[in-house]
Amino acid sequence: MMVSLTFAIIFAILSPCIFAFMNTLDKFIVSKKIKSIIGFTALAGIATLFFGIFIGLFLDWGNIGILEIWPAAVSGIIFGAQYFLYYKIMAGGDASNFSGLTYLYPIVVALLSFLFLNETLPYLAYAGILLSITGSLLLSARIKKLNGIKIVYLIGLNIVLIALYEFLIKISTTNLSEWNGIALEFIFIGATICSFFIFSKKMRKLAFQEKHNLKWAFFAEFFTLMAITATFFAMSTLSATVVSTIATIQPLMVLFFERATTKIFGKIYKNKITLSRIISIGLIILGVILLIFAN
Q: Alpha-carbon distance 87 to 284, whole Å?
């Protein structure tokens, strides 16, 4: 089911806004609430698996075969594997540092879309992509502030995983309804995360120690559900490259939420607003405006 262009753009903007709030919430949870990132990741897997099964119970699965299922399933597996990288990176630096460098991934999405989906955009759109990505990179902290080269490598791997995840969502929306895709995505995210713990006694022990934080896992993954739902509906109409590029507003929104929630969560960030950051924000906004008008 395709949505109108206007609603698709709204969904494309909502998705990074919700993910940005999640970045801030997750940084708070990692910093203030949990002792074991690995243990909490298991709880997140349980929550996502529950949401996927719950949604799937209300859907029609007739005439849906492996050819329709595999893109959402593989996307879910990738996203599930990415959870471990995500929480590891979140523990190693500010949320805005993490999200800034990660937003090189639209370049990978654009390349995949061109090679496999024959997606091309007007020159004005590519100019917007360049401006938005440049702004996101400038908005992030310098690499030397990211606690070592190991974190940089993790972010690089994260870029590839996110690009593949969004590219496969686009493929899923071409042959499967959005809600079926969302249910499959969450089932496979949860199953992937939980599978790591089935075969590891140490991981199960850490998860059991974090069981009192299960409510936080469900709370956080509810926002994951909202964000991924918005992504699916945006992808149903817009090109994958456009959706991923609009998502470069996420570092900007992370910066906003980090400051807006300080009185509630306490100080969980280290960055300050500077002229360079104001310029970066301007580039992101200008790039997204050009991208939207080009479409």
A: 25
